[in-house]
Amino acid sequence: MTTQETRDLLGDRFLPNPHFTLVRHAIVDAPVEPTYAAARAIDLTEIHSGLATAAGRLRELPARWRGRRAGPMRRPTRLTIDDLDAGTEWALLGEHPGSEFAIGVAGKFWRPVIVWRRVEPAEFEAFSEPGYGKLVMTFGVRPYGAHRSLLTIDTRVQLTDPPSWLKFRRYWRVASPFALAVHTALLRTIADEARERALAAYQRDDD
């Protein structure tokens, strides 16, 4: 990776000085193009792992309890990155097409029912309202030899004031294993889809 590429990392642009980080890599048996396409088109409703699924259900319990008279919570049948950007507090912060994209959100992540806050890309780096954390998740794909790629998921969190930092630190001690499980499930799902895309392209070229 060149110095210029390092400076251009979207995580460094939107959250250059994180307080907490979690970075995971996977070597994918597919070239960069299908791997990036798989990451960019991922359907988050298809992410399943024992720990990650349990974590999601546990985080839903307070909201379910508070809204129990309103009927059961509705689950989306499809949730892509573009769906997140268009219909939730999460924003697609930026993209280097073919190599990296970043999504981000602000929130009070440590609360039983998370208070989310949408912050648009132009305001994200400067956002500093007390009582919040900022979270950026980047998905990056780089060549790894002639026919494989290196998939990286980089999650960064920065808190806007010392009290929020203390609250998040206590929360992170409990939540980090679940975040790790989510990363693992994301990497596995993207890698599987990338291999299928690469195989389909090879078969088309072979016909």
Nutshell version of this structure?
This protein is an alpha+beta fold and 207 residues long. It contains 7 helices and 6 strands; from the N terminus they run H-H-E-H-H-H-E-E-E-H-E-E-H. Helix content is 44%, strand content 25%.
Structure description:
With 207 residues, the chain is an alpha+beta fold. It has a single domain (3-65, 76-206), classed as 2-Layer Sandwich (Alpha-D-Glucose-1,6-Bisphosphate, Chain A, domain 4). It contains 7 helices and 6 strands, in the order ααβαααβββαββα. Strands 1, 2, 3, 4, 5 and 6 form a 6-stranded antiparallel β-sheet that branches. The radius of gyration is 18 Å and the shape is elongated. The relative contact order is 0.24.
Say what oligomer this is: single chain
| Terminus-to-terminus distance | 36 Å
Mean pLDDT, all residues: 85
Which CATH architecture is right?
2-Layer Sandwich
Q: What's the number of structural domains?
A: 1
Percent of residues in helices: 40-55%
List keywords for this structure.
207 residues, six-stranded antiparallel beta sheet, Alpha-D-Glucose-1,6-Bisphosphate, Chain A, domain 4, elongated, single chain, alpha+beta, 44% helix, disordered N terminus, 25% strand
